[in-house]
Structure formats: structure tokens, C-alpha cells
Amino acid sequence: MNRQELKTIIQAEKNREFSQTGKQKICVCCGAGCLSSGAEEVMKKLQEEIKARGIEHEVEVIPTGCMGPCNQGPLLKCLPGYNMYQKVDCSNIEKIVQSQLVEKKPLEDLLLFADLREKPFLDAREDPYFKKQLKIALKDCGTLNPERIEDYLAHDGYVALDKALFELSPEEVIAEVKHSRIRGRGGAGYPTGLKWESVYKYVNDQKYVICNGDEGDPGAFMDRSVLEGNPHRVLEGMCIAGYAIGASKGFAYIRGEYPLAIKRFEQAIKQAKKMGLLGSHILGSSFSFDIEVRIGAGAFVCGEETALIASIEGKRGTPKPRPPFPAESGLWGKPTLINNVETFAAIAPIIRNGGEWYSEIGTPKSAGTKVFALAGKINNAGLIEVPMGTTLREIVFDIGGGIQHGEEFKAAQTGGPSGGCIPAAHLDVKMDYESLVSLGSIMGSGGLIIMDKSSDMVDVARFFMEFCMDESCGKCVPCRVGTRMLHDLLQKICDNKATRIDLDRLEELAVYVKEASLCGLGGSAPNPLLSTLRHFREEYESRMLTHDLSE
Amino acid sequence: MNTIPITIDDKKIEADPGKSILEVCRENDIEILTMCHLKGILDIGACRLCLVEIEGMNKLLSACTTKVAANMIIRTNTDRIRKYQRITTELFFAERNHVCAVCVANGQCELQDLGYKVGLDHIRYPHLFPQCEVDTSHPWYVLDHNRCIMCSRCVRVCNEVEGAHNWDIKNRGHQVRIISDFDTPWGESVTCTSCGKCLHACPTGAIWPKAIVQGQLQKNPGMICELMEKRKMRL
């Protein structure tokens, strides 16, 4: 396919949209969360019901990716009015079809957040849950059918790739990404543009692009939702990266626990190849790029870039010391660009709208938006995307709808097993890379676990240490033995058997593991422990044995 | 060849570019403790004993895997480094069942030597005492997991020098174990050539020949490097 054909298809698809045809559209959330609460049956029943009433030519039913409020699923979204329904099951489909589609009157008591708000908003976009959010990476997630490339094309899909290939040079693409000030969304927050530039500068006839989709933090599901809800966006981002750095081959490393994400991404690759948007001479240009999927086998450490590279090479997934960095010597010793799923998902809008547009969102040091997976004791658990610099209070209370059963907020855990806890005193912290680090936590990949008074912080630290202990690859001593020792000490404190000497030893060992470990897993494993010690020290102290054990 | 100036522990040194910090230190009689390093095979930076401080770097880097660069200022014996070397040594001893008094390698053991070097008089962490197997299935050699410190020198020697790749690693975290072939008894291995290089590479008493008693063990880890040098001369 060439440029002109692409433009024709995009126009034809845009004409098919409801705004042009007047046709109603019902989006059924088919993200993993809604699927597990029965979205598939809901969709089947919905189609049957519509057919039974003979209105199938007026209504289109499509499966979509994640819409956000996962614990209210299965969710329905009716366009053009943006009426959203929550906790839909087969028994109330009939009522919804009758009222929403036939009488064209939204059914108020089944609308989203009907149980939380005094009066739910007819247009869900008016609800503070959506109003406080700004969706860039997740923009079309929940509106388009991830299994149809045509749907993506109708939402400005592959326009950015077209622009990059025909209007920009690789240097200009990199300049645009640098200008956007986007930073790696995988956790460490390294400026993406600088990373692209350094890979670009290494001269080699073979370079690689890797998409890191080995999301393993407990409670995090951002990458899964992006891959399931809009796989073409990630694919397009990878293609643009390949063009910018001069790579001809990409690998998407997706964890094996995400079968739906793997299926949809592989499907996306097939569709893009068929349309000439992937493969040799993309859109008739001189640029060729191919992507292969690699499936992770369930090791958390394979999210670490050097371990991930070893895993793709078919070796045991253990990290290597850096330098050399993958930009210089990565996959099979070649210069390799490795970015997170969410980073790639933001590339197409940046190229389409320009880096300037993106850099104006967020805070001076952290531009753009960040996707968080809200979980724990919160009313609206699910997936949100907010501009950087949104306060934790806004996320928990305005978007998250507050703590379950009206309990008191105690702490928020960010960054999973590599992050830390933010206590209630710091609820007004701005969510950006620097502010979180200054509190002893990290942005991480975006897991956000909300805890109430019933959470025992020593046990939280013990839980994450147990996770790191099990997931340590066992290569270096500080991580292999150190995490085990730290875990045993934390268990001792939980069992009320520890003394002050144990606490001193715990602190010394935690700093040692942090500084001496080979890779980021060990280097950040003590973070939950150190941050709970910093903010909730009294919980540790109150469990110390003060009397002499021999008595 | 052009040399580059670096500073190690306030000593100005002209170093060959391309060499690791460890190599340069050893050439200049600056002591760096190591355990997973063995001359002749690739370095992996796993034991973390050779960590050094480099000015301008916020992380400690392993001397064996970091190449020297012009004007690098390196410190090898700060209080922090010495403290970490001691903790690492303690963790080695606490991890498995190292009982020198009943070990064939007593007096011939790099771990024991390391203990003396860091002045280890007691271990502050509880011994884990894992249940480890002893594989005696090979006709000539024994693999005792109780004494293994997972330096993976045997794995690398077997793979890189002998080319047999009999050894590999299974499991994760503190449950990692050296395996022969696909986790079969060593005696049943189809890849092992019984060359004995792993025995010489092993720093402790984890791999040893049968038919010797305590005190008789003779290990020659230097033979790996000699062998590699001779191979280079033949080319």
C-alpha cells in the first residue's frame, strides 16, 4: 500500500463513523478485567437482543479495550451520547436495549457510578472520574476495536508513521521526541529522546528496537491494557523508533501471563503487514521494519533490560553489569533501543501533534501524562491516565472516589516492589519523578496500591521483600542472599521476636543490598522496607522485644 | 601503545586502554578481592567483592567488568567498600553449609582465604542451613552443593574453555543450584568429558576428586589461564 491508498482508507473509515452515518455504537469493554467478570456473554446477549428487535442496522456493537473503572465491570459505552453503564449482566441487557436504543433514554440507575454519586452524569465525560484525567496513551483504548486495523486508521492511526517517513528525517524525529521531554515510562524515567539519540549515534548495519512488555509489578496492569486495547499504537511507536534510530528489526517482549495481549499484538502485526504498514518498503518508502513477538516465561527479573535481552537471545534471563549499555551493545551485541510499552504508545501522538504540544502537559521536569493502575482499598479501582504533577489527593479522592467503606487513608504504595509508600501527610505530593524520589519512593511503572488503616506496614514491607527474594535471579550475592536475610529479619519483626540489634542489622543490610547489587532488582528491593522505616518507624519500634529473652 | 592516565587510591597510573580496572589494579599490586573472577574466562560481576568507587558515578561498579577510561579516579579501599566486602563474605558463609573442619578443601579454599583477608571472626547473620545434595554419581568426581557459592566458574570454564557446556544453573534466588545437563546426575551426563577443569576452577570444596582425603586436595585454578595463553600461541 502506498501513501495515497492509506489516505483513501482513512477517509473511508472516518465516513463510517457514527458521526457521519448517524448510527449508534455500543462499545463493550473487553479488557481482561471486564472479560473475567463476563463481558463476553454480555456482548453475545447484547447482539442477540439487538437482532431480535430488528435494529441491527441502526446499532453497531464492538468489543474494545479497557475503559478505566475496572471494578465496575462489565462496562458498556453508548456513543454518541457517552452514556456508560456499569456492572452489566445478561439480566439487564433487555432493559438497557429497550431504554437506551429503542426509546433513546439512558437508564439512570444502571449508569456508571450510579451507586456512588447522588445523580450520575448522563455524559460520562462530565464525571470527575474522567474530567480529571487526560488520556494520551490510552486515548482510543475503550473506543476502538483493537482487533480491527481499520478502526485504528479511523482514529488517525499510522498518520504519525506516514509523517515521520515522508516529512521528517530520522534526526528530526529524534529532535521532536527530545523536544517533547517525554521520559521512559518503565520506571527509571530516563529521557526517551536522549536514549534514541545515543542509539542513533552508534554506527552499525544492524540495530534493534525492543518493546518491554514484561510488566511484573504486583498490582500493575498498564502495559497489559495498552497492548490489549490499542496494539497498533504500540506497533506504530516501534516503527517510528526503528526509522529514527536506523533499525530494521523489532522485538516485542510480552509476558506469558498476558495471553490476550499477545494474541492481539500478533494479530496487529499480521494486519499491519498485510496493509504494507510493516515489512519491507513501508508505504512505498525505502524504510523496512519487521517485528517479532517474544513471550516471557514468568521471571520478574526479565523486565530488567539486560536480562530481557539475554532472554530474547535464548539464554537464562539474568542481568549483566552496565556499562556497556544496550544502546552500545545490546541484543546480540548490537546497538539496541529498549523502551516500555507506554513510552511507545505516546510516540505517535507526539509525532502527530509535535513535541511542543506534549512538553506543555505536566510539570517542567516531567512532561506528559502517566498511566496508573489504581488498586487496593479504593472505590474506583482500575486504569487512569493523568497529567504529571496531579496530586495524590486528586487521584485518590477525585478520581479514585475515596477509600472503601469510608475508611481513613493510610498510605499509597507506588512503584511496586521497587518503590515505596507515601503516607497521609504527603497526600498533596505532585506525582512526578522527582517528587516521588524525594519521598523515598519512585514513579515506577505505574502501580498505585492504596492502603487504609487495616494495613500493617511491616507486613507490607515483608510482602514485597518476599516477592523480591523469590524473583531474584540468584546471580549476585547481595540480592540472592541479602534479600533472603532481609526477609527473614522482617518475618522476625512481624512475629514480634526481633530486638533492636535486629533492627540495626536490617537497616545496614538494606543499604548494602541497595548499593552492592548487580542490577535494578536488587538495587531497588530494599525500597519498600526503607520507605516504610522512614515514614512508619513507630510500627517497627512498637514490635521490638525490650525485655531480656533469657528472663 | 598509547596509555591513559588514571588514579587509583591517590596513585597516578598509566593504564592500557581496553583493560578492566581489576587487571590494572593487579598489575600495580593494588589488592582487589574477587571470587567469581578467574583469569582466562569471561567476567560476570556476580560476587560483588571487587566493587570500587569511581568519582562522578553514583553507583559502585565491579572492577572486573568495568573498563578503565581516561582520568578515572578510582577508590578501592574506602570504609564503605571494606564494610561491604565483609558483609558479602558473611553472606557467603551463612548461605550454605561451610564447615572447614570437615572439608577436603581446608587450607586450599579461596572462600576460607577470603574470610582471613576480611578478618572474619564471627558471622552476624543466621546460617540458613539449606538441605543440599551431594552428587557422587560421577566415577571420579564429587559435586557437593553444600560448599557451592554459585560463582559459576565451573559453568563458564566448561562452556568457554572445554566447550562441553555440561554445567548450567537451575532455579532462582537462594534456591539456585548448579546442574549437570538437564538436571540429571553428573555420572549420567552425555556432555561431560571428565576433563576436570571445573575441579580446578572451583574456588571451594564443592567439586573435588574422589579417592583423596582431607588435606590432599591440590587445585590449580591458574591452569585455565595458562591453557588459554597456550591456545593463543598456537593460533
Summarize the structure.
Chain A has helices at residues 3-16, 18-21, 32-36, 39-52, 90-102, 128-131, 149-154, 159-167, 170-180, 192-201, 222-229, 231-245, 259-274, 305-312, 341-353, 355-359, 392-399, 433-438, 457-471, 477-480, 482-494, 500-516, 520-524, 527-535, 537-541; strands at residues 24-29, 59-64, 76-79, 83-85, 208-213, 249-255, 290-296, 336-340, 369-376, 382-387, 409-414, 420-423, 447-452.
Descriptive terms for the model:
heterodimer; A: 551 residues; alpha/beta; Glutaredoxin; Rossmann fold; Ubiquitin-like (UB roll); 4 domains; five-stranded mixed beta sheet; four-stranded mixed beta sheet; 13 strands; 13% strand; globular; B: 235 residues; alpha+beta; Alpha-Beta Plaits; three-stranded antiparallel beta sheet; 6 helices; 10 strands
Amount of beta strand of chain A: 5-15%
Number of strands of chain A: 13
CATH topological fold name of the largest domain in chain A = Rossmann fold
CATH class of the largest domain in chain A equals Alpha Beta
Distance between the termini of chain A: 84 Å
Physical arrangement of strands within the biggest beta sheet of chain B: 2-1-5-3-4
